[in-house]
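Open question from group meeting: does this chain pack into something compact, or does most of it stay loose? Before anyone orders reagents, we agreed to write out a predicted structure and look at it together. Recording both the input and the output here so the notebook holds the full record.
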Amino acid sequence: MEVSTGVSVFLSCILIKLSYFCLFRCQYVLSSEISLNICLIVTFLAVIDIVFRFFNLRDLKAIIAYSSVLHTNLLLSLIHLDNFKIVNSSIIYVWGHSLATASLFISVNLIEMRYGSRNIMQVSGLWYTSPAIAYLVL
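Structure tokens returned:
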């Protein structure tokens, strides 16, 4: 059973970003050396796990969802660098990433409605059959 496009947009754009901001607010609680090392190790292991999962993915929606989680994990590793520019840039990045993933999920929904599939092998000729949707995905 899979979720609809609206729920995917909610999970990727709202829920993951809210967890980022929650951890951002709890940064001072996690600022001890032991918790910092544990957070960095967990984030590193999660990134390695997601990278290896990308080898077997063929579903466009799953690729977008895993890449969103990957970006959030990499961004969480920067949370502990107490640099003002990094913190401000990461907040702007979170909002931009939310808009980008929402657009990608909606474009994948359009691809599924047009081709009847989200399999990357079946819609590989998207540039030749429907360039407008291909530019939207790009």
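Observations to bring back to the group:
Residues 5-100 form one domain.
The mean pLDDT is 77.
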